[in-house]
């Protein structure tokens, strides 16, 4: 029995080492943000790859994002968006997505959230600053870029408007302040700028973050930012260096705070025993 247990521990250790090496080969803005917000959360999500049910808020956001993606793709192909057809497709995708994502709905919550999500999309179609006849330069663009610090940067850009204006869609329960919105999304926007330059050979001309606000009366808030500065790019590379060093050290220190209340790994974290030199068993 002792030999079998030792073998299992060795296999688990080998698996973890292999996973750490994979995580150092590529990096994304979402992984960087997770790592620098709470390294223990990063460990649970990306190293142990603990499976969790999709939260209603995440499912809601993904559904809205899917609808806006279809809207952008239709315009990219030169078509005309029909809201009635789009709503039918939205409802079908909502049902299909739940065969892939396990969602913890409360009683009678699902229908309400589906209608609320579509209401947010309808609001956007009415109030978007993007002309319906404007053809995008790119929609859901999957891009990679080799970084000087070693790993490959990977990402998906929601929308690229003419003249290299990068757009990112977000759903939010509260109205963001402009300076807070840019600061909070700076890592992602810098990553997009680097990826856009890799894909086109040109610097992105600027950024727009389109916040779809889930208030009782839905509203749209568009926050703009200028093109990436050299200082912002240097900061991004320092974040990547810290990410690589942290993985090498297996530094999974937790970061307790208000954000813990909505963390999917709250119970795992509260039971966690941290030991010097790496994770405890």
Write the layout of secondary structure elements.
Blueprint: H1 2-25, E1 26-27, H2 29-37, H3 39-47, H4 56-76, H5 83-97, H6 109-127, E2 138-146, E3 152-161, E4 165-172, H7 178-184, H8 186-200, E5 206-213, E6 219-226, H9 230-249, H10 266-271, E7 274-275, E8 278-279
Parallel strand pairs: 1-3, 4-5
Antiparallel strand pairs: 2-3, 3-4, 5-6, 7-8
Helix pairs in contact: 2-3, 4-5, 4-6, 5-6
Indicate the overall shape.
globular
Number of strands: 8
Sheet-strand content, in percent, reads 15-25%
**Portion of residues within helices:** 40-55%
**Largest pleated sheet:** 6 strands, mixed
Poorly predicted segments: 4-11, 274-281
How confident is the prediction overall: mean pLDDT?
89
The SSE string, one letter per element, is: HEHHHHHEEEHHEEHHEE
Q: Treating each run of at least 4 consecutive H or I residues as one helix, how many helices?
A: 10
State Rg: 21 Å
Distance between the termini: 18 Å
> Which class best fits the helix and strand makeup?
alpha/beta
Summarize this structure as a short list of keywords or feature phrases:
281 residues; alpha/beta; 6-stranded mixed sheet; two-stranded antiparallel ribbon; 10 helices; 8 strands; globular
Describe the structure concisely for a colleague.
This protein has 281 residues and is of the alpha/beta class. It has helices spanning 2-25, 29-37, 39-47, 56-76, 83-97, 109-127, 178-184, 186-200, 230-249, 266-271; strands at 26-27, 138-146, 152-161, 165-172, 206-213, 219-226, 274-275, 278-279.
């Amino acid at each position: 029995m002792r030999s079998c247990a030792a073998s299992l521990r060795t296999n688990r250790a080998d698996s973890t080492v292999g996973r750490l090496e994979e995580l150092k080969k590529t990096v994304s803005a979402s992984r960087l943000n997770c790592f620098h917000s709470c390294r223990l959360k990063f460990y649970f999500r990306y190293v142990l790859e603990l499976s969790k049910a999709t939260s209603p808020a995440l499912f809601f956001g993904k559904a809205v994002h899917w609808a806006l993606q279809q809207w952008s793709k239709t315009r990219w192909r030169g078509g005309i968006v029909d809201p009635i057809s789009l709503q039918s497709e939205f409802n079908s995708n909502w049902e299909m997505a739940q065969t892939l994502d396990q969602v913890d709905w409360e009683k009678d919550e699902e229908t309400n959230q589906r209608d609320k999500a579509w209401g947010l999309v309808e609001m956007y179609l009415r109030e978007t600053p993007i002309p319906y006849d404007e053809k995008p330069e790119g929609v859901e663009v999957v891009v990679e870029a080799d970084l000087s610090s070693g790993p490959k940067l990977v990402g998906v850009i929601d929308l690229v408007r003419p003249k290299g204006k990068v757009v990112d869609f977000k759903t939010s329960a509260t109205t963001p302040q402009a300076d807070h919105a840019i600061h909070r999304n700076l890592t992602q926007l810098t990553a997009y700028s680097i990826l856009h330059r890799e894909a086109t050979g040109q610097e992105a001309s600027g950024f727009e973050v389109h916040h779809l606000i889930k208030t009782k009366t839905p509203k749209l808030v568009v926050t703009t930012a200028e093109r990436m500065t050299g200082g912002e790019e240097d900061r991004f590379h320092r974040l990547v260096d810290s990410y690589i060093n942290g993985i090498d050290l297996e530094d999974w220190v937790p970061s307790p705070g208000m954000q813990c209340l909505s963390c999917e790994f709250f119970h795992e974290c509260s039971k966690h025993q941290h030991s010097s030199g790496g994770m405890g068993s």
